[in-house]
């Protein structure tokens, strides 16, 4: 569209109508909020309508957008269903998120509003991931991220911008600079009120609309930008505008003193609707015709509000639905094989097979294409698929995870590799606020099929930030699955399970298992979400996780061959937990009911951990079967020291396992 087209009367009327719709909807939201029907903290965009409508006028229906806490205007302008929006705001089951997302998570996939997320900056990465999916799938769509000026201060913005630039992705970044983040003016937070000049150095093309309340200026600029974006040139557009109401809620907040009424008056006089209304009148559009537009909007709102009130509240059992799903394919376990393979080779085979089976599987991470191929894991996949599907990435753990979430929303199955699980703490927001929760917040409609593969080290000198085993923290969050394969067969089977699961799954490999060799079937198989009963006994239940299993077996041998208890050999159930979430509580509880004794050996710390959870579950469920209080062995309650003189006392060791078995099984 050019200026000539823009001034066409039908276009002007459409832009006016779209803005009017947002204004009147949010005024209705205000009323419903005041009457107590809406409980959620609504973030109104009254005064900012021109940005949403202007940008959307440059998009096709098939293009996709993502938004933030202030998402009502974007949702409506992209064609989101108004009835489902009101139902969502009222917390009803017919809401676009079935009442589970609320005002800050509006989305309408059909209309191309893919997602909204209120943690500042988070959704910007989703737009980049969508852009990546479009590029890999060769789809001629663009994605647009809407966000406020506050998001510029978040690392995720720069990580996302950088990635889009390096990979030439079809993404438009739209910053609605309304000059404040909550009660903080932009000049208190940033070196200048103008943002655009700080962004251009990232290799994206930049645009600035100084009066973002002028819908024609926004629309014209968006058309210019989108033309470039469609050709793989990411663009950034700043539109200066102003929020009339308080940050959240429906009132005015001039009395708070962080901004002046005079400043507000300037922008209220510069109302996007009033300006366009004047233009329509100048172009001889009659007052009657404008009133008819008002009437049409009113009717639509009345119907939408009626729909929302008639909709049922979600039932109580909805509380627990949509947290996660079980994979739809049948999993097979204990597949026998004469073929022997090393642990790393088995994992690499799993990655390769997944990529061979499904074109949507991509692999991303820092240094994935380097000569070592992440301990060899990625070499076969990289040799076969090259850099289009095995993507070396910038050092942006959080951004990358968000980009993977976005790519998953675009239909991909991304795998992210972090060379150490310690680095994953930088991605906590994207993994656990976003990936883990978006299925739930969308009422089960978002599918975040991402796999995160990472490693635990146990070597002298690795020190405090390279030797943690963080599985318990990761497993704390509903919505993710976490596994630690012990055998080569499970290294492959658990990776395949993770990749083809519909939820985010974290796989942590312990590097001290890398030299293990074992039977690994050559074909496709998955390791089910259950524990493995390594050996069957009657005297004691030993639950272990990951690398400690070898020491446990050694400890049992020592007890039997060196010490013996009352001249008898002890015969334990040894359970290799494999999955930390979901974990196989049935197998553990049935075993403890048989043996009456429990020892848990973990690769993590003791407090608030896997061992705490298992012992608590057994005590809650089966304490009367226990002949002795349960015991546990874990890492020492300190960060891991680098000095090999003391590091050797840090991890669970065989002597401790022997001592605990003797205490549990002795008289
Ligand atoms: C990561 C994060 N930090 C803090 C908040 C609390 N918070 C919600 S909205 C907001 C201000 C955001 O300002 P801006 O990005 O300019 O958007 P606006 O509200 O002006 O539309 C803040 C600090 C949050 N949601 N997420």
UniProtKB/TrEMBL annotation:
GO molecular function per UniProt: oxidoreductase activity, acting on the aldehyde or oxo group of donors, disulfide as acceptor
Coiled coil recorded as keyword: yes
Pfam family, one: Transketolase_C
Keyword Kinase tagged: no
Swiss-Prot/TrEMBL cofactor(s): thiamine diphosphate
Coiled-coil region list: 276-303
Keywords carried by this UniProt record: Coiled coil, Oxidoreductase, Thiamine pyrophosphate
Top-rank lineage group of the source organism: Bacteria
Domain Transketolase-like pyrimidine-binding: 341-516
Protein name (Swiss-Prot/TrEMBL): Transketolase-like pyrimidine-binding domain-containing protein
């Amino acid at each position: 569209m050019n200026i000539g087209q823009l001034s066409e009367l039908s276009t002007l009327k459409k832009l006016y109508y779209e803005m009017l719709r947002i204004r009147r909807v949010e005024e209705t939201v205000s009323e419903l909020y005041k009457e107590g029907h809406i409980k959620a903290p609504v973030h109104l965009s009254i005064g900012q309508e021109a940005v949403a409508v202007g940008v959307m006028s440059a998009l096709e229906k098939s293009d996709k957008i993502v938004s933030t806490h202030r998402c009502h205007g974007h949702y409506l302008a992209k064609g989101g269903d108004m009835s489902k929006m009101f139902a969502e705001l009222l917390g009803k089951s017919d809401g676009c998120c079935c009442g589970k997302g609320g005002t800050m998570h509006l989305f309408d996939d059909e209309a191309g509003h893919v997602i909204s997320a209120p943690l500042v900056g988070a959704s910007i990465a989703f737009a980049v991931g969508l852009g990546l999916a479009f590029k890999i799938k060769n789809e001629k769509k663009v994605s647009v991220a809407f966000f406020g000026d506050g998001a510029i201060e978040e690392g995720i913005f720069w990580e996302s911008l950088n990635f889009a630039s390096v990979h030439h992705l079809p993404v438009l970044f739209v910053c609605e600079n309304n000059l404040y983040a909550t009660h903080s003016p932009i000049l208190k937070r940033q070196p200048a009120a103008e943002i655009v000049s700080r962004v251009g150095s990232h290799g994206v093309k930049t645009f600035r609309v100084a009066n973002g309340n002028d819908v024609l200026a926004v629309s014209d600029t968006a058309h210019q930008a989108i033309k470039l974006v469609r050709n793989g040139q990411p663009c950034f557009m700043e539109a200066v505008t102003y929020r009339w109401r308080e940050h959240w809620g429906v009132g005015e907040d001039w009395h708070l003193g962080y901004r002046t009424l005079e400043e507000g008056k300037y922008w209220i006089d510069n109302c996007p609707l009033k300006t366009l209304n004047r233009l329509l009148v100048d172009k001889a559009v009659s007052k009657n015709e404008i009133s008819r537009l008002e009437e049409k909007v009113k009717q639509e709102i009345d119907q939408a509000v009626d729909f929302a009130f008639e909709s049922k509240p979600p039932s109580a059992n909805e509380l627990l639905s949509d947290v996660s799903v079980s994979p739809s394919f049948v999993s097979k376990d204990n597949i026998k094989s004469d073929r022997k393979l090393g642990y790393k080779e088995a994992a690499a085979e799993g990655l390769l097979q997944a990529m061979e089976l499904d074109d949507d599987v991509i692999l991303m991470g820092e240094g994935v294409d380097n000569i070592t191929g992440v301990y060899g894991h990625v070499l076969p996949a990289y040799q076969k698929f090259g850099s289009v599907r095995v993507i070396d990435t910038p050092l942006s753990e959080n951004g990358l995870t968000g980009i993977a979430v976005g790519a998953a929303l675009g239909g991909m199955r991304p795998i992210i590799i972090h060379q150490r699980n310690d680095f994953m703490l930088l991605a906590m927001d994207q993994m656990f606020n976003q990936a883990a929760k978006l299925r739930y917040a969308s009422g089960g409609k978002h599918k975040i099929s991402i796999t995160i593969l990472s490693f635990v080290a146990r070597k002298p000198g690795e020190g405090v930030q390279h030797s943690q085993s963080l599985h318990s923290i990761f497993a704390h969050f509903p919505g993710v699955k976490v596994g630690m394969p012990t055998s080569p067969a499970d290294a492959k089977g658990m990776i395949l399970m993770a990749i083809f699961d519909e939820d985010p799954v974290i796989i942590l490999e312990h590097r001290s298992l890398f030299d293990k060799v074992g039977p690994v079937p050559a074909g496709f198989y998955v390791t089910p979400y259950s524990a493995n009963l390594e050996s069957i006994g009657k005297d004691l239940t030993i639950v272990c996780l990951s690398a400690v299993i070898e020491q446990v077996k050694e400890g049992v041998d020592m007890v039997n061959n060196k010490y013996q208890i009352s001249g008898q050999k002890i015969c334990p159930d040894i359970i290799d937990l494999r999955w930390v979430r979901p974990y196989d509580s049935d197998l553990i509880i049935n075993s403890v009911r048989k043996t009456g004794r429990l020892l848990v050996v973990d690769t993590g710390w003791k407090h608030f951990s896997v061992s705490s959870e298992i012992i608590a579950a057994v005590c809650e469920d089966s304490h009367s079967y226990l002949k002795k209080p349960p015991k546990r062995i874990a890492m020492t309650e300190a960060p891991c020291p680098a000095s090999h003189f003391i590091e050797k006392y840090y991890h669970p060791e065989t002597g401790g396992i022997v001592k605990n078995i003797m205490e549990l099984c002795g008289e």
